[in-house]
Every structure is written in structure tokens, then in C-alpha cells.
From TrEMBL:
Localization terms from the record: Cell membrane; Membrane
Species of provenance: Mangrovihabitans endophyticus
Main location: membrane
Organism lineage: Bacteria, Bacillati, Actinomycetota, Actinomycetes, Micromonosporales
Sorted UniProt keywords: Antibiotic resistance, Cell membrane, Membrane, Transmembrane, Transmembrane helix, Transport
Occurrences of domain ABC transmembrane type-2 (ranges): 25-251
PANTHER family the record matches: NODULATION PROTEIN J
Record-annotated membrane-spanning stretches: 27-49, 61-82, 103-130, 136-158, 170-188, 226-248
Listed GO MF terms: ABC-type transporter activity
The protein, known as: Transport permease protein
GO BP: any one term: response to antibiotic
Amino acid sequence: MGTHLFADTAVLTGRTLRHVTRSLDTIITTAITPIAIMLMFVYVFGGAIDTGAVSYVNYMLPGILLITIASGIAYTAVRLFFDMQGGIFERFQSMPIARAGVLWAHVLTSLVANLISLVLVTLVALLMGFRTGAGVLAWLAVAGLLILVTLALTWLAIIPGLTAKSVDGAGAFSYPLIFLPFVSSAFVPTASMPGPVRAFADHQPVTSIVNAIRNLFTQQPVGNDIWIALAWCVGLLLVAYVLAGFAYRRKIS
């Protein structure tokens, strides 16, 4: 059964990846928005924001990486929505295909597409002056955390992809996720925020994730941030996975 699932998932992932490679503007568009935000904040607002000894591009890159992921997963929901509307799922149900493989194909495609976008954004950041003395282990930790965030948000995107009534509804859920980094430590230290806003910023998941990635890049102790970030990501992943599976079973039953 496990081999059957892996083989079917590999075939279906190849199908969805071909759709992405035939429409590279999707990945480019996903990367353009965070790159534009990064350019604006670094060259327009960066000089007015005190981030201490850390250059502003170094300070805000972790938040930009999260915005990149949030932008990319909207396309996962849209691709899934079009598959549902096009009757692809009904045709799959008439074939001896592992049911879970259909969703996992979209998840793995999202992971690959988002990793490409993250690399593009990081390369632009390097051209803008981003520098880090982080070693291989620190880079692997950053990559692992970003992959975990991508998986959690992608499974979250599966839910509107299955349940939305329109393509706009399928993609619109990502807007709050793109906005969330702006009310966190991603762009300014939370100490500069008014009391209630600071309380929200300090305790929402983006802040712990951003702080953990930033400390890994700057070779600072990650403290509790890494554990809080992992707890948020794993918790969201499990909840989204269960809800997505429930929505899928209802849709195909």
C-alpha cells in the first residue's frame, strides 16, 4: 500500500509540476511581490528604522521569506480549485489511484515551487547586501524551518482549494497570511509598537519564526524562539492536515 501511494504520488506530482513549468510566470509573480516589498522597505524606509548593528536587509529578510511562502501557496489553492472544477478528481476516482496521492501531489508541487521562489528572493537579497556568517548547520536549520512552514501553510491552502465557491475565494485566504508579517518583528522591533499591538505581535507565530531565522543567520542564540516556532508550525500542520483530509473525503464521497 505504501509503495502504491508513493508511486501514484510521484506520477501525479509530475503532472502538477508540468503545469507549473509551463507557466513559469506563476513562480516569477510569486517572487516579484516580496522582492518589491524588500526593495521598498530597504531603500525607502530602511534608513528610518533602527535595527542596531544589524543591517536592515539582514533584519527584514526572514519576514520577506515568509511573505514569499504566503504568496506562493495561494496558487496551490487555485490549482486545486481548477482541478476540482474541471472534473479531474472524478476521473481519478474511477482509476486505481491512491486517494491521498492526489492531495500530496499538490503539496509537493507547492513545496518545489516555493523553494524556487525562496532561492530567487534570497539571491536578490544577496545583491542588495545581505550577508551572513551562518554555517552549514544553521542554513540547514533555516531551510528545515522554511520547509515546515511551507508544508503547514500548503495543507492550510488545500482547505479553501477544496471548499471555495470561486477562484477568487480559493486564493483570497492567503491575504491575511501576507499581512501577518507586518504586525510582527519582521520589519520593525516590536518594542516600538503601541501596547496592544506589541502584545499581539510578540505572541503571534510569525514573530517567533522570524526571530529564530534571524538569530540563525546572525549566529546568535535562538533561545525559546525556535521551539515556539516549531510548536506553531507542527500544530498548524497537524490541524490543517486533518481538516483538509476531512474536506477531501466530504468532497469525493
